C-alpha cells in the first residue's frame, strides 16, 4: 500500500555570513512548513547556514564553532520534520561543502559534495575538499540520496546513487541566474532523472548577493524525466511536493504548485525574447533591492540625464525600492539640451521620485580656473569633457555622504566594455544595475517596462522620446555616441563574440564584421580593463559578466588575433 510523503522545498533568501540570522530563518521556515503543509521533510539550499557564496569568510578561524552552535540549535529545536540543511563542515582540519539530515534532535546523516566547480563565478576548490562517497539516508522507509549542486552536472554522484537503489534523489543548490539558466537546469534535471530512473528534487537559493542573483525556480523531475513542478522565480517560497511511496520507490504527484511538464527534447535551447526581458528585469530589481537592503541603505540617488540609461535605472530603482526612497538629480551644463532637461523632469514627475536640478556650470568653471596654469597653451580635448562628468560625480557623492543614500551609476555593458565612461565621474558610485546589460538590451528593457505599464492602463514609465532620441553623452556640442563608436547593434554583436564567447579577432572577422572595426573595438576592450577594475559592481545577467566572470590582466602584451 502506498504511503504519503510531503517534502517542502524551502526556497529562501539568506544573508551571507549571518549564521545566527540564517539559523532562525531556517527554523521559522520549518515551523511554517509543518504548520501549513504538514511537511515530513523540509529541504534548504546549499550552504544555507552561511548562505552562498561566503568567499573568504570560510577561512575565518571562528567558522567551525559558529556552525556547530547553529547545528546544535537546529537539533535542540527537535522539529517533527526531517531538516535537510547545507553548511560548511570542518572535519580534521579540512573544510567540506556538506549537507546533513537532522531529525529528533540528532544529525542522522551527512554528505560532502564531490564535484567542486571552479569556473565562471565559482572557485570552490579554493575553500573545500571533495567528498568521495555517496550518502543514502532512510526517511520514513524511503532510501534517499543526497547530492549538492554541481554533483548533478557530474554523472558519477548520480550513478552512485542509482546503483545504490535509491527511491529519491535530493539535490540542494546555490545556482546563480543568467538568461537561459532555467532551461539548462530543466534539461539537465530531466536527463539525470531518466538516466537514473529516480525522481529528483532540486532546491535552489533565491536573492541578490553582490553581483550575483539567485533566481530560485526550485523544481522536481519524475523518474521519466518530466519536470512536474517548478517553483516561483526571484522570490522566497515554501513549495510542497507530495510523493507516493511504494516498495521503496517514490513518485511525485502533480499539485497546485506544478507549472511545467516537459521532456528533455521539448525544452527550448534558449528562452524567447520576451522571457529574457522579463527575467532580466526581475533579476535586476531583486539584485538592486537586496544589495541596498542587505547593506542597510534605505534610499538611492542617481543622476538623471534625459537619456535611456539613466531613465531605465530610475525605473528599476522605483520598482525595487519605491518612489519615496529614490532621488534623481538633473545636472545640466552648457551642452545639455532643453530636450534632456524636459524629459528628465517628465520622467521624475511620472514616477513621483524626489527630484532636483543642480547646474554644474559654476563647479566646472571653478575647476577650469584652478587648472588654468596647468592647461595653458594646450588645446581643449577629452579632458574638459571628463571634468564635466567628474563635477557630476562630486555632486552625487556629496549628497550620498550627507544623506546616506546609495549612488547608482548608469553605464551599460557596451560602454563599460570599450571604456566609454569617466573614472571618478559617471563611474562614481556604489552599484550599477545596468552593468551587464548591453545597450541593445537596455532599449529592449525600456520598451518592456513601458509595455507592462500600458497593459496596466498606465502611461509610459520611460518617455518614448527618451527611447527614440539618438544616444549622446552631451559633453560636447552636437555629440552623439556613434561619432566615437560603431552603431550599438553592430558593436554589441562584436562585444558578445569577444567578451561572452571568447572569440579572437580573426574568428569575429570571419563572422562578417569589418576587420578595422573589429580590431579597434577589441583594442578598446583590452586597454580599458583598468577602468573596469575600479567600476562599481552590478547585476550579472549573462554567462560572462565583467568582474567575477571575466578576469584579464591590466598590464599585458597579448596581441589580438586567434
TrEMBL record:
Q: Which UniProt keywords apply?
A: ATP-binding, Ligase, NAD, Nucleotide-binding
- One BP annotation, GO: NAD+ biosynthetic process
- In this chain, deamido-NAD(+) is annotated as bound at 386, 415, 531
- Give the E.C. number(s): 6.3.5.1
InterPro entries xrefs: C-N_Hydrolase, C-N_Hydrolase_sf, Gln-dep_NAD_synthase, NAD/GMP_synthase, NAD_synthase, Rossmann-like_a/b/a_fold
Residue positions binding ATP: 303-310, 410
Q: Does the keyword rRNA-binding apply?
A: no
**Active site per UniProt:** 46 (proton acceptor), 113 (for glutaminase activity), 149 (nucleophile)
- Which segments constitute the CN hydrolase domain? 5-245
Q: In which pathway does it act?
A: Cofactor biosynthesis; NAD(+) biosynthesis; NAD(+) from deamido-NAD(+) (L-Gln route): step 1/1
As its record notes, the protein acts as a catalyst of: deamido-NAD(+) + L-glutamine + ATP + H2O = L-glutamate + AMP + diphosphate + NAD(+) + H(+)
Q: From the UniProt record, which GO molecular function terms apply? A: ATP binding; glutaminase activity; NAD+ synthase (glutamine-hydrolyzing) activity; NAD+ synthase activity
Q: Name one GO cellular component term.
A: cytoplasm
SUPFAM superfamilies with a match to the protein in the record? Adenine nucleotide alpha hydrolases-like, Carbon-nitrogen hydrolase
- UniProt keyword Repeat, yes or no: no
What residues does L-glutamine bind to? Answer: 119, 175, 181
Top enzyme class, one word, equals ligase
A Pfam family the protein falls into: CN_hydrolase
**Purpose:** Catalyzes the ATP-dependent amidation of deamido-NAD to form NAD. Uses L-glutamine as a nitrogen source.
The text of the family note is: Belongs to the NAD synthetase family. In the C-terminal section; belongs to the NAD synthetase family.
> What is this protein identified as?
Glutamine-dependent NAD(+) synthetase
